[in-house]
């Protein structure tokens, strides 16, 4: 199909398609359009956001089946072919002959590119190497000075994944402060968040306000806009002395204090009760994956708090209470907390 038709047809499944480059749209027209139409016939919508446990398992199954069909001896060779120059030609021929694109995306209603990136993240042995040493951080700064944002090249030089080196560089690129937040930093953060929310609202607003009206009007917005899908890298740049994850955590703390009027919700007996309520509600939900959990609804089990606060508390709970949690599925983690930790917490209370 020609470019305009491709854009038109893809727009039904990907509303923001007109912001995507022409070359990417051409690839999507080839790899995704027919798949999306088939999923539509089955009543399945195209998905974005975090991959569920079910989707991760489907990717594993697709990769394992492709390795069996082709005789390629590892997922790393299949997904990181450039690391094996002597086998590159043979692997690429096998991928073309056995329709690698189709096989990898089988049964997953998402754009092919996102499935491919997810598979690479799952099967990259360089992705699970733990903390960066001082020497590695220095090397990363040096390589970035030489190669800029060529994360592919830098990742190969450091034997770390592209994503890992890019994220680590965002943490160490400037004099990041790791101590308590100063008043000035907190003010900068609050102004930065207000700025991005105002900008977003103006774009959504059919009748933009004049600058004088804008500076005088109070923001009256849905609570969700205060903490969902904020552009944290942009906020990081405006704050200047903290990296994006610190900004996100601090903003969650500020919101929690505002929403709870400064009450300590997670201390003493209140804290024990909150953990008990959280485990019970998660168990009752019978969710197979974290994506299926309505964190907004769960926030009421602790108090009137942002969803990020509840997610952080759950993360802390599983890391501190569930042995080998990284190797367990979401439902196994919940079962363990319910069967092993809950009686202990109730007794303590």
Overview of the structural elements:
- There is one protein chain.
- The protein has 349 residues and is mainly alpha-helical.
- The protein has four domains: 3-123, no CATH class; 134-173, Orthogonal Bundle (Arc Repressor Mutant, subunit A); 183-206 and 222-260; 268-348, no CATH class.
- 63% of the residues lie in helices and 0% in strands.
- It is built from 19 helices and no strands.
- Pfam families: Myb_DNA-bind_6 (PF13921).
- Residues 124-161 form the HTH myb-type domain.
The rounded distance between the terminal residues' Cα atoms is 65 Å
Q: Helical element count?
A: 19
Structural class: mainly alpha
Largest sheet: none
Number of DSSP-assigned strands: 0
Beta-strand share of residues = under 5%
Shape: globular
Taken together, the total number of domains comes to 4
Low-confidence stretches: none
Overall radius of gyration: 24 Å
Question: What is the N-to-C succession of helices and strands?
Answer: HHHHHHHHHHHHHHHHHHH
Approximate helicity band: 55-70%
Mean pLDDT: 81
InterPro entries: Homeodomain-like_sf, Myb_dom, SANT/Myb, TTF1-like
Organism: Oceanodroma tethys (Wedge-rumped storm-petrel)
GO biological process, one term: termination of RNA polymerase I transcription
Pfam families: Myb_DNA-bind_6
């Amino acid at each position: 199909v020609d470019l305009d038709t491709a854009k038109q047809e893809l727009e039904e499944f990907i509303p923001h398609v007109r912001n995507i480059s022409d070359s990417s749209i051409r690839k999507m027209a080839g790899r995704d359009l027919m798949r999306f139409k088939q999923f539509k016939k089955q009543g399945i919508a195209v998905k974005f956001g975090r991959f569920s446990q079910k989707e991760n398992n489907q990717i594993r199954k697709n990769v394992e089946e492709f390795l069996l069909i082709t005789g390629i001896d590892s997922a790393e060779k299949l997904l990181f072919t450039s690391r094996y120059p002597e086998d590159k030609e043979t692997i690429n021929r096998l991928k073309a002959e056995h329709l690698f694109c189709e096989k990898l995306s089988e049964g997953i209603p998402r754009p092919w590119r996102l499935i491919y990136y997810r598979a690479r993240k799952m099967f990259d042995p360089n992705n699970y190497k733990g903390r960066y040493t001082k020497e590695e951080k220095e090397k990363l700064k040096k390589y970035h000075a030489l190669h800029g944002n060529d994360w592919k090249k830098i990742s190969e030089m450091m034997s770390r994944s592209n994503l890992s080196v890019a994220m680590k560089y965002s943490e160490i690129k400037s004099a990041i402060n790791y101590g308590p937040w100063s008043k000035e930093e907190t003010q900068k953060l609050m102004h930065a968040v207000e700025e991005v929310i105002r900008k977003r609202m103006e774009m959504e607003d059919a009748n933009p306000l004049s600058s004088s009206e804008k500076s005088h009007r109070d923001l009256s917005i849905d609570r969700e806009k205060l903490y969902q899908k904020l552009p944290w890298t942009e906020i990081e740049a405006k704050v200047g002395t903290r990296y994006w994850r610190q900004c996100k955590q601090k903003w969650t703390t500020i919101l929690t204090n505002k929403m709870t009027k400064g009450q300590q919700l997670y201390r003493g007996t209140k804290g024990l009760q909150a953990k008990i309520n959280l485990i019970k509600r998660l168990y009752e939900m019978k969710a197979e994956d974290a994506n299926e959990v309505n964190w907004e609804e769960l926030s009421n089990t602790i108090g009137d708090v942002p969803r990020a606060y509840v997610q952080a508390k759950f993360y802390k709970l599983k890391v501190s209470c569930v042995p080998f949690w990284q190797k367990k599925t979401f439902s196994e983690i919940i079962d363990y907390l319910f069967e092993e930790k809950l009686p202990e917490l109730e007794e303590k209370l």
